[in-house]
Amino acid sequence: MSEPRILVIGEKFIDRYWVGTATRISPEAPIPVVAVKEVIQSAGGAGNVSANLIALGAIVSEYYPGPEPIKNRLIANGHQVARWDEDDHCDPLSFLRPEDLQNRDGIVVSDYGKGAFTGDIPKLISKWTGSTHLFIDTKNPTVWPFRGNFFFPNMKEWQTHKDFYDKCSRVIRTESENGMTHLNYGEAMWHTPALATDVVSVCGAGDTAIAAFAYAYCKNQDIVGAMRFASKACAVVCGKPYTAVASHEEINKITG
After folding, report:
1. Which CA distances in Å does 162 have to 75, 134, 168, 177, 184?
2. Which end of the chain is more exposed for a tag (fewer CB within 10 A), N or C?
3. Is 61 among the domain residues?
4. Could you tell me how many helices (H) and strands (E) the chain has, helices first?
């Protein structure tokens, strides 16, 4: 089968890591004094979803509104000690047209609640998508039509919007160190354990989960097979520092 054609719509971030060492505590406050040695930057949010899909071989198209929020993380001696955000909003996705969503095998939505998906945009995307598979990672699930779409809440998001997700037949709940579970109208249908054995960073693991699942599902894997593939991909990126992607070669080395 040819590689899937997947459209990524959403809020793209810049993940910026200020990496250094700390050998003493500040006399002004109980915080470390960090000597920054390097700055590492990568795409986050929807940009990280795209990067993961591209690494897997998908044919990717992208629609991002500006500006790009920046997530700054201060890393001292291998540990994150502070984070500060800049430009924490995006413009509405007002330039989308029905034809932009056609001739795709799948569409991935990254809705971090930064302003891209306002007004009728979620309903229009669901309407224009038609029979194309729609995979949604959102902080605001109640603005999205729930029938037929895949949703990817983490445990906290699921607890906050449980009434909504109990109406959905395709919920893939990500559970950090406990893996992920497929929920059908609130009932657990299948659970895949986490496979990471050496967790270095969990930054962007949710982006990897939805990207890998969408890729596998659009390659004609069933839900169980796509979940297993996504779990292996997450194990790969959790073993890397900073925001990362997983290749097929790395995924194939993960057992479980």
Report:
1. 35, 20, 10, 21, 12
2. N
3. yes
4. 7, 12
The span from the first CA to the last CA of the chain, in angstroms, equals: 25
Dihedral of the CA atoms 163, 221, 103, 142 (nearest 10)?
10
Quick check: is 230 in a domain? Answer: yes
Q: Is 24 exposed, middle or buried (0-12, 13-18, 19+ CB in 10 A)?
A: exposed
On whether residue 19 sits in a domain, the answer given is: no
Q: Is the pTM of this model over 0.85?
A: yes
What is the spatial distance between Cα 74 and Cα 212, in angstroms, rounded to a whole number? 28
- Number of structural domains (the chain) is 1
Chain segment 172-223, per-residue pLDDT in tens: 999 988 999 999 999 999 999 999 878 888 888 999 999 999 999 999 999 9
227 is written with which tokens? 């979940």
Give the DSSP letter of residue 154: B
**How, if at all, do strands 32-45 and 12-25 pair?**
antiparallel
State the residue range of the domain holding 202. Answer: 5-12+44-68+90-252
Q: The domain that contains 53 carries what CATH number?
A: 3.40.1190.20
